[in-house]
Write a structure and sequence with these properties.
Layout (H helix, E strand, L loop, with lengths): L2 H9 L12 E4 L3 E6 L17 H8 L3 E3 L8 E8 L1 H12 L4 E9 L5 E5 L2 E3 L7 E3 L8 E10 L4 E8 L6 H8 L13 H4 L7 E9 L6 E5 L5
Parallel strand pairs: 4-11
Antiparallel strand pairs: 1-2, 2-4, 3-4, 5-10, 5-11, 6-9, 7-8, 9-10, 11-12
């Protein structure tokens, strides 16, 4: 095992954050919206010690809650869960048809242009899983729009709003790395000086907009970033 691989595996040791109760943003008879803390898995992981996760915590209070989509362990923010199989099917179709608009906030190294779109295919970096990479031959199409919100000249960091048009694994992290602006606190992809720039990955899902599965009207859920 190379030193690089050993370091990567060590960085992926899972210690779930304390269970201080659910942060429920919205709940009705059909769906539940919660704020996932950074460092918590959405669903159980493989292996021992990775069973504590958001979905299990949610089901202690909402037994019929079912997963519809996921957030990376290191990412915080809004997550929708369906209350029952019928609603899960409806919400899954909305995600599949890209009728759910997701917005993220991130703090990145450097200063990118005021706005832009990243159109680069993403695929698994098999020798270094769970890392992903830009793969122009076998990767899956992936698109991300972004807008510069502010820049900190002293730290040379920027705050961005991000709209993923696809949902590839680690898409935002890989896309921002590819254009030379890795996310601060990203211990999986960024160089050490950037990876150690924050105690957590500076990525947060702050908005979700979708047609409500019950009445069909557009609803917007939001939760401010904790950074």
């Amino acid at each position: 095992m190379s030193a690089n691989t050993s370091s990567l595996l060590h960085s992926l040791d899972y210690i779930a954050p304390p269970d201080n109760g659910l942060d429920v943003v919205y709940a009705d008879a059909t769906l539940l919206v919660v704020n996932k803390p950074a460092g918590l898995l959405t669903v159980p992981g493989r292996g021992e010690g990775k069973q504590d996760c958001l979905s299990r915590r949610v089901r202690t209070a909402f037994p019929t809650a079912l997963v519809v989509h996921r957030l990376d362990m290191s990412t915080s923010g809004l997550l929708i869960m369906a209350l029952g199989r019928t609603v899960q099917s409806l919400l899954s179709r909305l995600f599949a048809k890209r009728q759910v608009e997701k917005r993220y906030l991130a703090v990145v190294a450097g200063r990118p242009p005021a706005e832009g779109r990243i159109d680069l295919p993403v695929g698994a970096d098999w020798p270094n899983r769970p890392r992903q990479k830009i793969d122009l031959t076998e990767g899956k199409a992936a698109g991300t729009r972004y807008r510069l919100l502010s820049h900190d000249p002293a730290a040379d960091t920027s705050r961005l709003a991000l709209w993923p048009e696809t949902g590839r694994t680690h898409q935002l992290r890989v896309h921002l790395l590819a254009i030379g602006h890795p996310i601060i606190g990203d211990t999986l992809y960024a160089e050490p000086s950037v990876a150690t720039g924050a105690a957590r990955l500076m990525l947060h899902a702050d908005q979700l907009r979708l047609p409500h599965p019950g009445h069909g009207e557009s609803v917007l859920f939001s939760y401010p970033a904790p950074f």
